[in-house]
Structures are given as structure tokens and as C-alpha cells.
Amino acid sequence: MRKKDRQSLLTNLLIRVPNWVGDALMATPAVRSLKKHRPETRITVLAKPWVAPLFEANPDVDEVVLYRKSGGRQGPGGRWRLVQGLKEQGFDGVIHFPHSFESAWISFWSRIPRRIGFSIEGRGFLLTDRLQVTPARRQEHQVAYFFHLLKPLGIEEKPTPESNPLWLKCLPAHLQAARERLKALGIGPEDFLVGLAPGAMYGSAKCWPFDRFEQLAERLHQIRGAKVILLGTDTDALAGTGKNSGSYFNLQGKTGLGEALALIGSCRLMICNDSGLMHAASALGIPLVALFGSTNRRRTGPWGGVNRVIQKEFSCSPCLKKVCPVTPTCLEAISVEEVWEMIGKMEEEGVLEKRPQSYGPR
């Protein structure tokens, strides 16, 4: 069979999306490009429950299938039930965004004919279309890296933030929940709302000290008259233990992802570590100050939108370690004053004055 004919057969495609919020958002430009070039293809996303809300309102996705850790799919027996379920849907192709062996194993035993992914973690023999993780590809931004997965389908595109932005939209129910929560906190559409995301699932090396977020919140509230909310999960590394104070409302662990996204979309400004919520702010077009430590801003930095990145260049950076072995860490080297000055510059440029439309997302 000719290569072109083989490519044209994919009309029922499964996409195994990444397991983390930031990575999943960085996969959305590739999903959009795929749908643009193959509008006739039915796209089903297989996602862990905590990233599924990112795709529930995505017009490029026809169905979202949850890969739950509980409810019958935990352990070998659960994975086998997932295999049987996927087999019944008759997929003719799958694209694996995660590098995991398990991801490829499931699609192999689901008897999906075309299995596209990076040949890594010893899983190459489970794939039909094996892409190499070359040194050059390891240096690319994650969005561009993901676009290589479209090449076996004949889609050649070099993404840019302007032509291939992150894509995110919230469900009406989540927007309504965000409006009600803000109203209950005494926050209205005219208020200058700032979101702080002090956590990061990766580890403490990605977290600016929590007390500095608190100091910044106090300045924003006292000097700028801002209303400040803290967002994230209650398990984020070093997310802090602060309760509601006179300077901020701590909503960490009090919202689901869908509502948190809608709250981000209601902000005039977000200040984040390198995290999933940073990419959410970028996707929603919310002005952003991103604080980077051990990670590589050229690979996982904000993709598009109005953003400013602060990162100290140490001789060991980016080390990519979860816990920094030196003191002070590269994030501890970023002062509250430095972030405050950056906010002032953004305000002078007029990028913080535009009100979010209808409390948020496009």
C-alpha cells in the first residue's frame, strides 16, 4: 500500500494526551493542526481525569475517554478492561504524546493498527511509526517537539505562538461557578483581580518561596488595591499553608481544575511558577509573570500571550532537578522587589488594563 493511501485510512483516531496539565496544554496546538489538516478524522482523547477538563470544550475533540486510577481500571486487570474497551471502539490509529511504556503497551494490545510515538523507554517494538528523540529535538520547545508526532500522517508544520497558540476554553458551568465564587468573596468585574499560583507538582526546585508570594500579595492589595486569589491544588509542592488573610483569598485545593481555569480567565494578571496553571494563563491570554528555577524556559516557557519570564542564570542551570542541592537556589535569588518592578513595567505598557471578557476564556 502506498504511503499516501496508508495515511488517508485514519478516520477514527485515538490521542493519548500527556498526564500533566502543562504538557497537555502544550499538546493542544498539535491537536488543532491535526483537525485542520484532517477535518474528516474523528478524534478521541484518552486522558487522566485531572487533565480531562482541558479537552471537554475543545471543538477539535469528538470524545474524551477517562483513564481512571480507580473505578475498574486500576492494576493489570483494570488495564486489560481498558484494552477491551478501546478495542471495541475500532480505532485505526493512535498518537502517543506521553513517553511511557504503558501507553504503547495498551494500544498494542488494543490491536490499533497504526501506533505513532517516540521510540523511548524500550517501547519501540510496540509502535508501528517510531520517532527518534534526537539531541536537537530535546532542545525544542515542547509544542514544537509534539508536532513531530504529526509527520507520519503527512502533516509538516513548524509551529509558532502566533499561528499555533495553545487552545483552551471553559465549560459554561465552570464559568458560572467562578462567577459565584468571586461574588461570594466580594470580588466584582471592576476589581483588579490578580491570581497567584505558588505551587508546582514537579518539586520544590520549581517553587518560589511561599512567603514571597505572601509579601507580593500584600503589596498588590495595599498599594495597587488588587483583590488577590491563590490557586492550585492542596498537594502542590511547597504550595504553602497560608489561610485567607487581609491580603489574599487562598483557594488552593478548594476548586476543581475546570473552575480554577475559569478563575484564571477572570484575572487581569497571573504570577506563577513554571507550572500547568502558567500554561493555562498563557492559553487564556491573561498577562503573566512566570518565575523559573531549575527548568528550561526555552523548552517549557510560556507559549505566546503577554508574558514576562524572570530566571536567574546560575552556572548549573537549567539543572532540571526536582530539589535544588545548593543554597540559595536560583528561585530564592529572585526578590519580591524584582517581581514588583516587572509588574510596574507591564502596567506602564498598558497590558494590564484590559478587562477579561465575561470573566474569562476565549
Indicate the topology.
Layout: H1 3-8, E1 12-16, H2 21-37, E2 42-47, E3 63-66, H3 75-88, E4 93-96, H4 101-109, E5 114-118, E6 129-131, H5 135-138, H6 142-147, H7 172-184, E7 193-197, H8 210-222, E8 227-230, E9 249-250, H9 257-264, E10 269-273, H10 276-283, E11 288-292, H11 297-300, E12 307-311, H12 336-348
Helix pairs in contact: 2-10, 7-9
Strand content: 5-15%
Please state the structural category: alpha/beta
**What's the tally of helices?**
12
Spell out the helices and strands N to C.
Answer: HEHEEHEHEEHHHEHEEHEHEHEH
Q: Provide the low-confidence segments as ranges.
A: 1-5, 358-362
Helix content: 25-40%
| Mean pLDDT figure | 89
In the CATH hierarchy, what is the architecture of the largest domain at level 2?
Answer: 3-Layer(aba) Sandwich
Sheet with most strands: strand arrangement: 3-2-1-4-5-6
Query: Terminal Cα separation, in Å?
Result: 43 Å
Give the class-level CATH name of the largest domain.
Alpha Beta
Rg from Cα: 21 Å
The count of domains is: 2
CATH fold group of the largest domain: Rossmann fold
Largest sheet: 6 strands, parallel
Total number of strands? 12
Gross geometry? globular
Considering the protein shown, what is the CATH homologous superfamily of the largest domain?
Glycogen Phosphorylase B
